[in-house]
Design brief:
Layout: E1 6-8, E2 16-24, E3 30-34, E4 47-48, E5 50-53, H1 60-72, E6 82-88, E7 93-101, E8 116-120, H2 122-125, H3 132-145
Parallel strand pairs: 1-6, 2-7
Antiparallel strand pairs: 2-5, 3-4, 3-8, 6-7
């Protein structure tokens, strides 16, 4: 666990585990995912970080890297990640979030899941409808970075 790692909310209420990545680009913007609009998707039409469920026998960081690759087409390594926080979703899923600083060209992204994506500043993100757990984690991230993203 990293020195800044924290638990947000009531962790004892988790029923499943997920892991995601907050990518910070060279302009200090965050890569965000617009969730699909269908009945199978948790939080349809809301914004979140890229990530998903941890499979049996999989480490948190491995799950984050796998989900990130599946959803964005971007390959990253576990050693590039810094564990930030965990929060519980409205559905009882415990979401672990990692940060990743990376120079990226948006044209490199191949959206494999979600209705869309965007590189957004803190101020843009604060105006969006967010998945609750991702919103808690991003608020924590903004407090730690104390920057005007």
């Amino acid at each position: 666990m990293s020195a800044c790692f924290t638990t947000l909310g009531e962790w004892s209420k988790t029923t499943a585990t997920a892991a995601g990545i907050i990518l910070i680009d060279q302009q200090d913007r965050l890569l965000m995912q617009l969730r699909d609009m269908n009945d199978r998707t948790a939080g349809p039409g809301l914004w979140s970080i890229f990530g998903g469920h941890v499979e049996a026998g999989e480490t948190l960081s491995r799950a984050a890297v796998r989900e990130f690759a599946e959803e964005t087409g971007l390959r990253v390594s576990e050693d590039q990640l810094t564990l930030l926080a965990r929060a519980v979703s409205a559905f009882g899923t415990g979401l672990y979030a990692y940060t990743l600083n990376m120079k990226i060209d948006p044209a490199e992204i191949r959206l494999g899941e979600g209705a869309g994506f965007a590189f957004l500043t803190r101020w843009q993100i604060e105006t969006l409808p967010l998945m609750p757990a991702a919103g808690q984690i991003l608020k924590h991230f903004f407090t730690l970075t104390d920057t005007r993203l």
